[in-house]
TrEMBL record:
Record Gene3D superfamilies: Leucine-rich Repeat Variant
Any GO CC annotation of this UniProt entry: small-subunit processome
PANTHER family membership: SMALL SUBUNIT PROCESSOME COMPONENT 20 HOMOLOG
Domain U3 small nucleolar RNA-associated protein 20 C-terminal: 359-496
Record's protein name: U3 small nucleolar RNA-associated protein 20 C-terminal domain-containing protein
Pfam families per the UniProt record, alphabetical: UTP20_C (PF23099)
HEAT repeats: 52-90
């Protein structure tokens, strides 16, 4: 086949990328993928730009996830088979996309072009890392422009930080946003940065060490960003950076020898900075829908941060601002001065959070307690034993008081039971007793049980007195309790209908009575 006819055939094939139906576009992309694998390398080099740009447009603009995945595969196979000279032209094109000028009319960059640059760079880093390293595009272009894009998007956000935490976190799993909005740009550049961090950690670490402003932006703004994908990628970047900076510790070593000597790192060596990022990560546990990947990332970095803070200075004055806590319970269970160190404040905060967070977050906190128990010495674990027992015993007693416990266990699979808060609480209690010994554990465990029981009795007595002294307040509480019971019964009926496969029938029954 002559080059002219071959070009005509390729152009005809590429024109069908705009086909109306998804199945047609998928078929064209599959054909292009097969051609990318079968064509000789000289022909791929000759037609690289002809094939690459239309597929890139399909990667960025196609509404179908399947088409976008196939487009990414086509781009990857083309970049892997292309020659070094042709890829150099591609990196020049990427450079122009990253450095696209700001629109003078709107004073912002092109969102669509920024997403395109980030996604193609991610594929190129994965397909041909040697070309990326040789071109020096990452330290000179990608990372500085990533910082610029994120700063612009954060400034463009209309809500303040407090409004984001209070208003948007509630329905963060169902956030509806417009196409190519700020969160998409932030996610695209951060997802690219995650891949760069895996392939070229030295570039990311050096840039984060030199640019404290960008690191603070990640910690203060993006860790608690409303969209869950942004939060996940941010935690992945920070987790990799902190693990490489702090160094891995072995679980069977003592706390005094857990931290290996590392290079002098200005940001990581500051206890205030480590405490700041720890408190930001802890806030993620308060989200109503904690995704499993985010849960794994939190468990991967938070124990090491807590151990690092504990080792840096055990007698440091509390660095955090006060959060709303039950001071009466604090004085009874922990004693005065229980939160006078950063690590003590963290343990107290985690202990209180168990009361109000979801079951998934409770399981995460208990796994964190187990990791901290393994990392610290037995003498240090005993100092914070009451903090952990306060949360563990409460969950144990709450599960013991649940009605219809047999039905609850019958509807749970083995994997769900092993990851349930009550099962993990029992496991952590056994681990603590084994770690510090029964002589120290049993008296404190009994003390916590008695104090929790006494607090509940005092609360019941106070509410009985309130029924006489403030009847309106008691009536409002009773009304709220009845509404919660009604909501729980309705949820149980819906769950039963789903398990029995009669959801449609139950909906018809409800509609007939309304």
């Amino acid at each position: 086949m002559s080059p002219k006819r071959r070009t005509q055939q390729l152009r005809f094939l590429l024109q069908n990328l705009n086909y109306q139906y998804e199945s047609g576009r998928v078929g064209v992309l599959q054909a292009l993928y097969a051609l990318g694998l079968q064509l000789p390398v000289p022909i791929v080099n000759e037609n690289l730009q002809l094939l690459l740009l239309p597929v890139v447009l399909r990667l960025v603009n196609d509404e179908s996830k399947t088409c976008r995945e196939h487009a990414a595969q086509v781009i990857q196979v083309l970049l892997r088979r292309a020659g070094a000279q042709e890829l150099q032209q591609t990196t020049i094109l990427l450079n122009s996309w990253w450095n696209a000028p700001i629109d003078p009319a709107t004073n912002v960059f092109d969102y669509r072009l920024a997403c395109t640059a980030a996604q193609v760079t991610l594929i190129l880093v994965e397909a041909r890392p040697e070309i990326i390293e040789k071109s020096r595009i990452i330290p000179d272009v990608v990372l500085p422009r990533t910082k610029s894009f994120i700063e612009t998007c954060c400034l463009k956000t209309s809500h303040s930080y407090e409004a984001l935490v209070e208003d948007i976190f509630i329905d963060s799993a169902h956030v509806e946003v417009e196409e190519h909005s700020c969160w998409q740009v932030i996610f695209s550049v951060l997802d690219c940065m995650v891949q760069i961090s895996d392939k070229f950690p030295k570039y990311v670490d050096h840039y984060l060490e030199e640019c404290d402003v960008f690191l603070q932006l990640l910690v203060n703004e993006l860790v608690v960003y409303p969209h869950p994908w942004v939060r996940l990628t941010t935690i992945q970047i920070l987790s990799g950076y902190l693990k490489r900076s702090i160094g891995h510790r072995k679980a069977d070593t003592s706390s005094s020898s857990m931290i290996r000597p590392t290079q002098s790192l200005r940001w990581v060596d500051s206890q205030e900075n480590l405490f700041q990022i720890t408190t930001q990560i802890i806030k993620l546990l308060t989200l109503p829908n904690l995704s499993h990947p985010l849960q794994l990332e939190i468990l991967g970095i938070l124990p090491w941060l807590c151990a690092r803070i504990f080792d840096m200075n055990q007698n440091t004055t509390l660095l955090a601002r006060d959060f709303e806590t039950d001071e009466a319970d604090d004085m009874i269970l922990y004693g005065a001065g229980a939160k006078q160190t950063s690590f003590g404040w963290i343990m107290t905060r985690l202990s209180y959070m168990v009361r109000a967070v979801s079951a998934q977050a409770q399981s995460t906190i208990f796994k964190l307690f187990a990791a901290i128990t393994q990392l610290l010495d037995a003498s240090h674990v005993s100092d914070y034993l009451i903090h952990m027992l306060n949360a563990l015993v409460r969950v144990q007693q709450e599960q013991d008081n649940v009605k219809e416990k047999g039905d609850y266990l019958a509807n749970k699979s083995a994997s769900e039971l092993e990851d349930s808060p009550r099962f993990l609480a029992n496991q952590v209690v056994e681990l603590l007793e084994k770690k510090i010994g029964s002589d120290v554990f049993v008296p404190k465990y009994t003390f916590v049980q008695q104090k929790i029981h006494q607090l509940r009795l005092d609360r019941k007595t106070k509410r009985k007195q309130e029924l006489v002294q403030y009847p309106e307040r008691a009536a409002r509480r009773k009304l709220h309790k009845n509404e919660q019971k009604k909501f729980g019964k309705q949820a149980k009926k819906r769950k039963f209908a789903v398990l029995k496969g009669i959801t449609c029938r139950s909906k018809r029954a409800n509609s007939s009575y309304s």
